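User: Please predict structures.

Assistant: First:
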Amino acid sequence: MEYFTFDRNELLFDEDINVIVELIDDAAEAYKIVKTALQNGKHVVTANKKMMAEHLYEFVDLQKKHGVSLLYEASVCGSIPIIRNLAEYYDNEMLHSVSGIFNGSSNYILTKVIQEKLSYDEALKQAQDLGFAETDPTLDVGGFDPKYKLCIVTAHAYGVFVAPEEVFNYGIQSLSECDLEFASEKGYKLKLLANVLRVGDQQLTLFVMPYFVPREHYLYYVEMSTMASL
């Protein structure tokens, strides 16, 4: 009996296999795998935030239709059980907002730039050398990674499915020397925050952008590659 294959269909169409764990970084190919698995009545575990944000509504429908489970806790701040907490403790709460540092790589870079006075390029290189940031860091520093996570959080916090392209994101790669000098002069720290806010009774607003965070802010002391939310 063989336990290794390069052919995904050998797993997806094997009736003796009832759980598929998807661990690839290609969101388009991951989508094909997860969709086929759900359609074939298999439970799925994934951490692919981009795929989940773009297809969450479809996947929720598929798992209900085929009576299977889709588990994706690790797709949103894997070290923090935010999805579980929203599902178990806040499903009946009227949340006003959810806000947090959803990307550890950008937080590491900002910590180095603000506190150690490294240049942005030096801090980014350190983050890449340590494995926090990818060779192409666009998803992290451009605010796309936290945007995907924010879309998933919004679905659990408010029951609303939002497409990533409808969410504004502005990353840290365009911060200027003036921004850094202002933060230092005022005693602020810069944090890339993801936010979803209730606006009135029927509307939400979502955005990801850098913030000047004062000392009394609850995220002021969250440093390096740590993530946090509230």
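Second:
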Amino acid sequence: MSEFKSGFVSIIGRTNVGKSTLINNLVGEKIAITTDKCQTTRTAIKAIVNRKNSQIIFVDTPGIHKPKTKLGETMNETAWGALGDVDLVLFIVEATSDKIGKGDTLILQKLREKKAKVILLINKIDLVKKEKLLELIELYRKEYDFQAIIPISALKNDNTNKILDEIEKHIPVGPAYYDIEEYTDQTVRQISEEIVREKALKLLDQEVPHGILVEIDKMNLRKTTKKEDIYDIEATIYVIRKSHKSIVIGKNGSMLKRIGMYARQDIERMLGTKVNLKIWVKVKENWQENTNILKRFKSE
């Protein structure tokens, strides 16, 4: 019988390369929110995959980018910090690249400094021809001694099963760190906050999303008059400008209603029960520079 293995695996890459989509596919649950906006993930999120002979704990990180605020700096610090004290790193790049860009070059440099064990994942292979993919594989192979190079499509779930098999080869023998029923270290409250933010990101104009902060103010489970379970959830969306507040609310509250409707549906799926969701919108100027608020985005 094979010895049980367990290990921590950090996922790193530039913004919008598909890290969160991959995490959700590997775990089989919605752990990280996904949008086509940059810098969607703000914190290091742990996601747990339990297999017959192993437990793999993934650490999904914010995308590496050029920061414009203290929030951006904190997100980068969190991503770099996740390279320490892990057994393996998954480095995700896009198959659509013709060369190794500045961001990926910087990541490779950090990986060399850490002398990290790395599996390279080349994502979005459904968008390129095989010849181009082979050229990109050769480019990266010259740059780093990867444990493996796996072309994937996180969106279409192509080749993702190979990732877990490959990871198992490179993590140490060890105990299960989490209960086998667990699939994330996030609380229900944190996931609910992220779901509300995801719906706002997907529905709002480009200039608004990066200034959004969501906080759950109240989350209570009660019985209805028909003795059915229902969660009463109250959330606040904070924005950095008054003009953003009116955009989030929309004409006659139409945008806020749409955000609330889609968020409620996802939260109900997660909780397996009915949800009564109320959302308010408030202005909190310069929160992205507020040290006390940014503590919640720092990795422990």
